[in-house]
Amino acid sequence: PELKERGLVADVVTFNAVIAACQKVGAWERALAILDEMRQSGGLSPDTVTCTSAISACGAAGEWTIALALLSGMLAEGPGAD
Length: 82
What we know:
Structural class: mainly alpha
Order of helices and strands: HHHHH
Radius of gyration: 12 Å
Low-confidence stretches: none
Helix content: 55-70%
Number of strands: 0
Distance between the termini: 25 Å
């Protein structure tokens, strides 16, 4: 939302960088919110980097159930465009 307010458009690389940053600071809930925002943005699909960053964020915080659910969803959707 903040990017849109400034007239900027995020791409997959932007989302990946933000989710990876969330992982580094232990903000797993924020990482999931950003992943959800990406999915709802219309036109952008998470790639392998996106998903592994979100999974890592959850795993680092000890949220293994959520990390495994993300992995399961990623495997069910098949390979993304990398």
